[in-house]
Q: What sequence folds into this?
């Protein structure tokens, strides 16, 4: 069965430091992968997505993610974190053979220290 | 212009009551979804509709009944509310089926508290 694991429940980084959020997926075919961000009290917003082609994907707000098939990973990165990046981050895989639903990871809460 | 809107934003009610949550999207999308986010922030799909037709119906108690009067609306009715129904319910929409490359656009959520 398809699944997504985000090993880090909570991460704290200093403002200006680099960030990497981990995501591992389990999927039999070529996965459709997404990263969403949820600010406190808000809905989810898409940061970036991967379907095929270049394995390094650029997204909004300066985020990027790299698809590594050999490691079944799709880690999210940002070179310099801003205080406004503090939020919950969700990795998701599109289960194309199940009506197109998204299967989400548990989420990683990002805190930013001044 | 809110792309995906939900009403109400907050809902506090007693066990055993029946309540509805409404969702509307003005994006012209064909597919709409309901997700439940529990207290640990885990998101799980409940239902999806494509052009008013039920596509996904996860193992959700039959106390939950979605209704799609038209492509732009997907409402969620919950009968005989239980304590465990307390959660945040998100509506979302996409122009196709989300797993097939399309981006899902989420509403702001409805925070349901059952006392």
A:
């Amino acid at each position: 069965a398809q699944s997504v694991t985000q090993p880090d429940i909570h991460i704290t980084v200093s403002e200006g430091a680099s960030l990497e959020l981990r995501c591992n997926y389990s999927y039999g075919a070529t996965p459709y992968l997404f990263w969403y961000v949820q600010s406190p009290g808000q809905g989810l917003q898409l940061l970036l997505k991967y379907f095929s082609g270049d394995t390094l994907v650029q997204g909004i707000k300066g985020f990027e993610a790299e698809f590594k098939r050999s490691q079944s990973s799709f880690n999210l990165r940002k070179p310099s974190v801003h205080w406004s990046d503090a939020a919950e981050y969700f990795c998701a895989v599109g289960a194309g053979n199940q009506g197109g639903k998204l299967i989400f990871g548990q989420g990683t809460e990002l805190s930013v220290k001044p | 212009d809110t792309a995906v809107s939900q009403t109400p934003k907050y809902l506090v009610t007693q066990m055993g009551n029946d309540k509805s949550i409404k969702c509307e999207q003005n994006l012209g999308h064909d597919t709409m979804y309901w997700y439940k986010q529990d207290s640990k922030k885990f998101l799980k799909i409940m239902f999806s509709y494509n052009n008013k037709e039920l596509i996904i119906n996860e193992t959700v108690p039959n106390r939950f009944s979605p209704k799609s009067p038209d492509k732009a609306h997907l409402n969620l009715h919950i009968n005989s509310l239980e304590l465990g129904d307390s959660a945040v319910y998100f509506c979302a929409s996409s122009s196709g089926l989300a797993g097939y490359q399309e981006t899902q656009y989420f509403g702001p959520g409805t925070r349901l508290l059952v006392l």
In short: DSSP finds no helices and eleven strands in chain B.
